[in-house]
Amino acid sequence: MAVKTAAALAAALAFVTAAGAAERAFTLASTTSLEHSGLLRSLLPRFEATTAIRVRVLSVGTGQALELARRGDADAVLVHAPALETVFVAEGWGIERRPVLRNDFVLVGPAADPARVAQTRDAAEALRRIWRAEAPFVSRADRSGTHYAELELWRAAGVAIEREKGPWYRQTGSGMGPALNTAAGLGAYVLADGATWASFRNRGSLALLLEGDPRLQNHYSIILVNPTRHPHVRADEARTFARWLVSAEGQAAIAAFAANGERPFRPVETGGSHSDLQPLGPPLERPARATAPVSAERSATASFLVASAMLGAAFCYAAVGHGGASAYLAVMALANFAPAEMRPVALVLNMVVSAVATLSFSLAGYFAPRLFLPLAAASVPAAAIGGAHTLPVGAFGMLVGATLLWAAGQMWLSARRPEQVAPLRQAPASLLVLIGGTVGLLSGLTGVGGGVFLSPLLLFLGWAGARQSAAVTAPFVFLNSAAAYLTWTWQNPSPLPDDTVWFAVAVLSGGWVGAWSGSQRFGIPILRRFLAVVIAIAGAKMLLV
Q1: Which residues face 138 on adjacent strands?
Q2: If you compute the radius of gyration of the chain from its CA atoms, what whole number of angstroms results?
Q3: How far apart are CA 340 and CA 482, in angstroms?
Q4: Can you tell me the distance from the alpha carbon of 149 to that of 155, in angstroms, rounded to the nearest whole number?
């Protein structure tokens, strides 16, 4: 039975690797306004059906999008802050900046309009009136293009907002949709992009009060990440997308987009006014038309194969009390997931499997609080610190690659490690705290839960037997993963890939059976050795590619 399962897992992983190698895809860091308005959901299926190139979208503010590109975590950016874009290109991080579309910012606020901003057509004067009246105002305060446009308007109004702001000035640190919801709840003024306002339904007492000021024009540009700075970027795929956006087909799709009966975006005018914009690179050979539409996410077949491989991995790891993040990272590396997707997905799946393993081993009576509590007390804050930091993509690849190779070695050794029969030693609390903090920090940085480091140490030092080690490791992994994921999402509010829910179902199934087998029955040495080889290959790929 074990040999057949190993063969099935081998076939699934082979298909995953082949699918990942054949797939053409790139990562686009774009603004929340283009996501919340629905424009990207309208454009991307058309582009993908034409070119068979899949677009992974990271929806963040303009400032954060440019920072992702600087780190090499995106292949192109679609943003709307001309001053920041100029600096980004001048510093050598971006190339081939081109205007793509435009719309307008609008000032919305309570219909009663206590600051009487509707009586002026001057946006700067409107903000002066809000300041004088100390009327509630919501600022995104998220380093987005809209936030920078708001700051420019305060400067034009002659108001030093950092000095003059008071309780009336509410800073949300959120995207456009949440900022509008906050304004609706408070009856506050807010600067919004016209497209998100057009698609926003929870308006409450809010009304459009000012539009049409030339200062409120909002221009979006696409910039490719410079491959001389980050050789791994998908420059050809990103350039194909840029060329499509400015083509007749792309511009017509932009012009045709409608939200609530309005057409909030306009295509760029030929020969637009941005004198510093650069031409696109040399023409590329047009890819063959796809034989079938390509979805905005992974194809159903690719997602199924990835989920199948993760199910097998969860079975093997849960049997020894681990969450399996190192295996999920391995599968995602083989399937060519974007680095920015890998860590949060691995952490979520880790939580699912480690929760099941915690329940199973605890019910079997193997949990040891004296070991767990000092480890967890140090690891949780350390994991939160690690999760709050994003490594450059090269450093991330090296650290994850080394982690996977370590995990492969430990998984291979665990296949022949017998149950502890010698008397167990007493673990010093101070050493447990040191180990917990170190493993927790590494867990947060890489997206693993730390089980591949903790359980070998517990066994080697003679502090726990195999099943007792698993019972301590499982909740340790869960807490580390939860802490790292929460801080990661606080710093990087992009949504998880849509197929994450199917991956979660797969690992829940595999983890439940694996945890039951490990706590009640037996381990599966052949599967563990096979999994060790797969993880080692993925680790080598992360280090070398």
Answers
A1: 170, 190
A2: 26
A3: 17
A4: 10
One digit per residue, pLDDT tens: the chain, 545 residues? 444 444 444 444 444 444 444 457 899 998 877 887 888 888 999 998 888 888 888 888 888 888 888 888 889 999 988 888 988 999 899 998 999 988 888 999 999 999 999 998 999 999 999 999 999 999 988 777 888 889 889 999 898 888 888 889 988 877 777 888 888 888 999 998 887 887 777 778 889 999 888 888 888 999 999 999 888 888 899 999 999 999 999 999 999 888 777 788 888 864 333 333 444 444 333 333 333 333 334 567 777 888 888 888 888 777 766 777 777 877 877 776 766 677 788 888 888 888 888 888 788 787 888 888 888 888 888 877 876 665 555 565 676 667 657 666 765 776 555 544 445 577 788 888 888 888 778 776 766 667 767 776 776 677 876 677 778 888 888 887 888 788 766 666 556 777 788 888 988 888 888 777 765 655 445 545 654 664 566 556 556 54
User: Cα(193)–Cα(147) distance, rounded to whole angstroms?
Assistant: 10
In SS3 terms, 72-118 reads as: CCCCEEEECCHHHHHHHHHCCCEEEEEEEEEEEEEEEEECCCCCCHH
401 is written with which tokens? 């690659």
Of 453, 343, 347, nearest to 393 (Cα)?
343
Homologous superfamily, domain 103-216: Periplasmic binding protein-like II (3.40.190.10)
For the whole model, what pTM was predicted?
A: 0.52
Cα separation of 81 and 61, whole Å? Answer: 10
Domain ranges within the chain, ordered by starting residue: 103-216, 302-544
Is the distance from CB of 93 to CB of 228 less than 8 angstroms?
A: no
| Count, residues in the chain | 545
